[in-house]
Write the structure tokens for this entry.
Amino acid sequence: MYNDILTIGPVTIHGYGLMIAIGIAFALLIGVRRAKNRAMSADIVMSIGLIVMVAGFLGAKLLYCIVELPTLLKDPLSVLSGSGFVVYGGIIAGILATVIYCRKKNGSFLQYFDLIIPSVAVAQGFGRIGCFLAGCCYGCVTDLPIGIVFHNSKIAPNGIPLFPTQLFSSAGDFLIALVLILYARKTRSTGKVGGLYLILYSVGRFIIEFFRSDERGSVGFLSTSQFIAIFMLAGGLLLCFWNQLPWLRGSELADKFKAHLSKP
């Protein structure tokens, strides 16, 4: 695949960055439209979108630095690599930034989390296409007919068929977005749409990690992303089944925590 889409004089448009930009644009459009349909603030959605972009970028880069610390100590300038990100770092940082923003604006974090999370999945879908163009997050060697051969990649091994993990991830993200949008058509308890995203994304990410072959750190026998996925899955299950778990709902600490996230 080719990451250099177009060169105009000294300016080169890279597929990775272009796909991220397209993903952000679609995410904002979908978020604003959904906000208007639900009589929620489109301005807050736009603000959250901008905040999540910055926080997500920094969080994804920070987690990448932590995971690849030994490599960075040997080559500090490699941190400037355009493909040096860990998505879970962006998700965590984006969620924390949104919680802080909603508290300052007296908005309910869980309501806006439910509203914008389908947009996040859409942005991730386009982002994974960017990964495919750049050759990062590549899969293991395969003899299956679906194998993809890179010829000019600066990141992925060239000349051998690789499992197209990026395309499967992209398709999964778009499918998650569709499921969330359809699921949200009916009135749901606050936090359930966001919880469903955490469940679906964590399960999908845990599985796809088995087919990846790039260096991405590990925690024991799990990859870093698989380790984080376990906690994300637990959080998603709590949000989805909060009202069905009397022992949890009756916990003073747990009730205060959810009330804090739901409070305008």
Q: What stands out?
A: The chain has ten helices and six strands.
